[in-house]
Amino acid sequence: MKERLRSANPYLPLWEHVPDGEPRVFEYNGEKRVYVYGSHDTERTEYCGRDQVVWSAPVDDLTDWTCHGVCYRASDDSILFAPDVVQKGDTFYLYAAEDHGSRIMVASSKNPAGPFENPKFTQLGFDPGILVDDDGRVYAFWGFCRAFCAELNDDMCTIKEGTLRCDPIGHVPDPWNEKNNEVGVDLRDAFFEASSPRKINGKYVYVYSKRYVTPVPELGVYDPCNGFLSYKWSDRPLDGYQDGGDISFNGGEILCLPDGSGQQTYRWGNNHGGLVEINGQWYIFYHRQTGTDEFSRQGMIEPVDIAVGKDGKIYIGDVTYIDGEPVSAKPVEETSSGVSVGGIDAYKIISAGYACHLSPLGQAYIKPVYEQADGVSAPIVNIKDDTTAGFRYLQFGLNAPKTCTISVNCSAGMHVNVRVDAWRGRVVAQFDTEPGKTEYCVPLTCGIIGRRAAYFEFCGDGEAEFDWFTFDR
Question: Which DSSP category does 171 fall into?
């Protein structure tokens, strides 16, 4: 029996929906693990849910995730928005956003997996992000369409007198509160939400969700868009923040068009996450959308590069160097492989739910699944003529496969092309679907080795549901 792929990108099981993930490396009982704290999309008809769960993985294997169960429930059973967790001394503090993020509580535990208990009301606001500095001082960042930050007292709840800062970075024009538009509006680099502070190489890095209100043609963005995680940096924790850039964008693979513009291949949506260093490698945790709304989001992870230039500027993302010096950075690509930088194993059964390319936009989508079964797959549905589903990247090894097996259910006859390397790349296998048949094993026409991208193109009348695929030698 072939083994199913159980962790790629998304990194948690396909039935789990933990967006807004803040990653933290904590040592507990002599073991270092990366813990993820996020909201929990269980309501299905609106954002988030009424409990929060903790997942963790050993730092030497980011594909081996364990669920520790529910760590917190709101004091009044209300909807919990994005949390954060930090450690000070031997205590872990969960900043829980109760009542749709309108009431921020802090609860504590001696275990990073919780449960977090004894909640206390704080003076913080929407989407809290917390930084414990090297000297033990604690800083909080928060806001929606307008940013705020302050130093906290030792109680971890209240703001130290005289430290509150409004608009440490410029904010987006705010249609929800016109008064905000009187100060600090930044049309080019606008704070939206999702504050996530870090200290990296002696610099204070403010990660946040940016809302572009001006076009970004190279990424296929022409309308207001908040699918980005971006950053600014400073030499001080509460002010002096300077231009950074964009770390990630959840619009899928970006196709480069002949005129220099880009084309998204996945439906972008809101974004939230954070940076973490694990065994010397930095990663950005973020989320993507499934289904046809933003209520079944999934956690994603990509490796990032971080460098500091001679001028002191910090570069984060896909960094370009000249003569060993960083000169620019752009968002890292969205992949199906995530931490498996060499590519996911092409010889396992791979769910269609790991696709990072679904074009054209607004047609096919990944169907959310919630059944907590081992090896559950998330199919791509609403596949019609000219739909392409892409997976970056697979690892084929040095011995080329001979066949590809695809599980697809089609209401009428369609032609399927299997391509490699690009969405209009070389066709290495093809077949026609048949009524009542749901599994096809087709020969490959050429050898495929190493790390490659794979694309499945569907042509013709009818509608299809794509469940999984695998390759065999």
Answer: B
| Section 41-58 average pLDDT | 97
Query: Strand order in 225-234's β-sheet?
Result: 191-200, 203-212, 225-234, 242-249
pTM above 0.70, yes or no: yes
- Cα separation, 195 vs 46, in Å, equals 21
**Pairing of the two strands 274-278 and 281-288:** antiparallel
CATH 2.60.40.10 fits 344-472, yes or no: no
Predicted pLDDT of residue 172:
83
pLDDT of residue 374: 83
Single-letter code of the amino acid located at 331: P
CATH homologous superfamily of 22-330 equals Glycosyl hydrolase domain; family 43 (2.115.10.20)
Handedness of CA 184, 187, 193, 196 (dihedral sign): negative
pLDDT band with cut points at 50, 70 and 90 for residue 130: very high
Q: Where in the chain is the domain with CATH 2.115.10.20?
A: 22-330
Task: Give CA–CA dist 85/334, Å, rounded.
Answer: 26
Paired residues of 319 in beta bridges: 329
